[in-house]
Amino acid sequence: MKKNTYKSKRFLIPILSLVLISIILIASITSYISINIFKTHMQEEINRIKKEYTQEHKKRVYRNVKFVNSSIEFNISKIEEKLKASLKEKIETALHIATFTYNTYKGSHNKEELKEKIANALSAIKFYDNRGYYFMYDNKTKIIFGHPMKKFIGKDMTNFKDAKGRNLMETDAKILEKNKIGFNKIYFTKPKDENRQFPKITCITIFKPLNIVLGIGEYLDVIENQTKKHVLERFSQDNFNNGDKYIVILDLHDINGGEEFATVLLNSNKKDLIGKKVSDKVVDIKGNRFRKDFLDLIKEKGEGFTQYWYKKPSTNEPALKVSYVYLQKDWNWIILSGFYYEDLEEQISIMKKSILTHTNNTINKTLIWVSILCLIAIFTAIYLSFKIDNTIKEYTNKIIEHEDNKRKQQNLLIQQSKMAAMGEMLANIAHQWRQPLSAISTAATGVKLQKEINCLTDKDFDSALTSINSSAQYLSHTIDDFRNFFNPNNSKVQEFNITKTFNKILSILSAQFIAKKIEIIKNIENIKLSSIENELMQVLINILNNSRDVLEKIEDQKRLIFIDSYKNQKNLIIEIKDNAKGISEEIIDRIFEPYFTTKHKSQGTGIGLYMSKSIIEKHLNGTITVTNTTYTYENTKYKGAKFTIEIPIEKV
C-alpha cells in the first residue's frame, strides 16, 4: 500500500505577501489609529475621573452625615444609659420603702389601706427639680392609686395610649414579663403642662405582695435640648466646615412641607439663616423646588442623594451641587452635606492638557517603533516561512501516519466485531436448525421404512411430506432472518417498529435461551422510530448474548432476563437487566474499553461492548450506560446488571 505523505506547498510567497501587505497597512493607519486610541483613552480617563470624583465625594458627604447621626445616637444612648441607672436606683429605693411599709402595717391594715400607706410615703418624694415623681397602679385592674396629677388617681388605664399610639399598660406588661425591673420609652404630660405630651423614660417594677406596679420616670426634652446644643456647637466648628464643604442641620416641623416646614439650626455657609424658618416653595436657577425634592426623598426612603443648584460660598454664584440628606428620627432633624461639580471641571481641564501632551509624545514614539518593527518583521518573516514550511511537513506526515494507524486499528476492531457476530450467528443457526432438521430426518426415514415393508399409505405419505415442508419453511424463514441481519441495505436510517425488532432478535436467539432454560420477561411499548435498525439489533444481540453467557453459570436460582422499552419525551429508552448477580464494582467502569473481557479467551474478544458503545454514540446519536440493580420478582429478591440505552426517536 502506498504511504500518504505531505507535499510541500511552499508557503514562502503567500507568507511574505501577507507580511508586506500588513506592514503597508500598519504604516498607513498607525497614526490614525493612535490618535483615535488616545482620544478615546483621554475621554475614558475623563469619565473615570468624573466617576471617581463623584464616588469619592459622595462617600465623603455620606460619611459626614452618618458621623453626625452616630454622634447624636451616641449622646442619646449615653443620656439614656445614665438616666436608666439613676431611675433604677430610685425604683429600688421605692421597693425598700414599700417593703418596709408593708411589713410594718400588714398585721393591722387590709390591702387597700396598705396601698394607700405606700402611695402616701412615695408621693412625698420629688427629684430632678420637682420634675420627677413616683406613680403606682394596680397590676390587675390597671387603676392608678398614686400619682401627683390628681386627674389620673382612680383612673382605669387599660386602654390609655400615648401620643405615638402605644398602649402603655400593654407595653409595661410585656416588659415586666421578661424583667424584674424594666424600662419603657413613652410620651406623657407634665404636672405643669397637662395639655401636651413629652418624651419620657419610665422605670417600672412589681411589688409582688400587693401585686402593684411601682414606677418612676424622667422627661427627656430638657436633657435632649442640652444635648442638642452640645451637638450643634461641636459641628459648627471649622474642622467640619471648610469653604465649600459644610454641614446643614434643619429642625423638621412638617415633613409634608410648607412655608415654615423647618428651622435652620446649622449652616456655616449662610449663618444669617440660623434660627429662621424655611419654605419648600423656594426654587433654584433651573426652577426646581429642591427642598421639596429632598422632603419627598426622606418621606419615601428616609435618606439618599439629591441634586440641585445652589450658591457656592467661594464664588457666590449658583453651581450644581450633590447633597446627601438624612432624617434623624429621634430628634426629627434633617442632616445635609454636599459637594459642587464645579470643582471637578477644574480638575478635568488640567488633566486634558496633561493627556494631550502625553498623547503627542506617544504618537511620535509609536511611529518610530512601527518603522523599526516593520523592518525586523520582513527579515523575520523570510526566516520563519522556511521554518514553518519544514515544521508543517514534519507534523503533517506524523498526523497522516497516526490517522493511517488509527484507521487500521478501527478496521481491525470492526472486522473482529463482525467475525464475533458471525460466530454468534452460526451458533444460533446450529441451535435454530437442530429441531427442524431432526423432524425432516425422522419424517424421511419413516417414509422410507414404510415403503420398504409395503405399508406406506397415501395418508402417511402426505403427512410426512407436510411435516418435511413445514420444517423446510421454518428453515427458510430462519435463513431470511439471518440474511436480513447481515443485509447492508438494513444499515441505513429508516422507520421501524421496536416491537418487531425485538421479535426478530428473539426469533434468532430463542433456541439458545430455551436450551439454557433462560426466561425472557418483556414489557415493550409499540413505538416507531427512525434509526439504523440493523446496528441497533447488533447492540441488543450482543447485550443479550452476554447475559446468556453469565446466566449459564447460575445454578441456584431461576435464570431471568427483563426487557423494557418506553418513550421518554423525544427519546426511546431500552432497559435490559438480568439476575446474574451483577458486575464487580472494581471493573464495571471498564467494561466498555476495547479488549476488556472477563470471559476466557476462547469465549470472548472484549470488543463486543466497545463496539456497542461506539455504535450507540457515533451512529445512533444516543447513550449507553450500565449499573448494578437490585429488584424483587415473584416475591424473590434478585441482583443483576442493567444496561440502559437512550436514542432519539426522530432522525437527528
Automatic annotation (TrEMBL):
Residues 428-651 form the Histidine kinase domain. GO terms for molecular function: ATP binding; phosphorelay sensor kinase activity. It catalyses: ATP + protein L-histidine = ADP + protein N-phospho-L-histidine. The chain crosses the membrane at residues 12-33, 367-386. SUPFAM superfamilies: ATPase domain of HSP90 chaperone/DNA topoisomerase II/histidine kinase, Homodimeric domain of signal transducing histidine kinase. Coiled coil: none annotated. Keywords: ATP-binding, Cell membrane, Kinase, Membrane, Nucleotide-binding, Phosphoprotein, Transferase, Transmembrane, Transmembrane helix, Two-component regulatory system. It is a multi-pass membrane protein. The keyword Membrane applies. It holds the Pfam family dCache_2. It is found in: Cell membrane. The keyword Membrane applies. Its EC number is 2.7.13.3. It is an enzyme of class 2 (transferase). GO terms for cellular component: plasma membrane. PANTHER family: PEROXIDE STRESS-ACTIVATED HISTIDINE KINASE MAK3 (PTHR43065:SF10), SENSOR HISTIDINE KINASE (PTHR43065). This is histidine kinase.
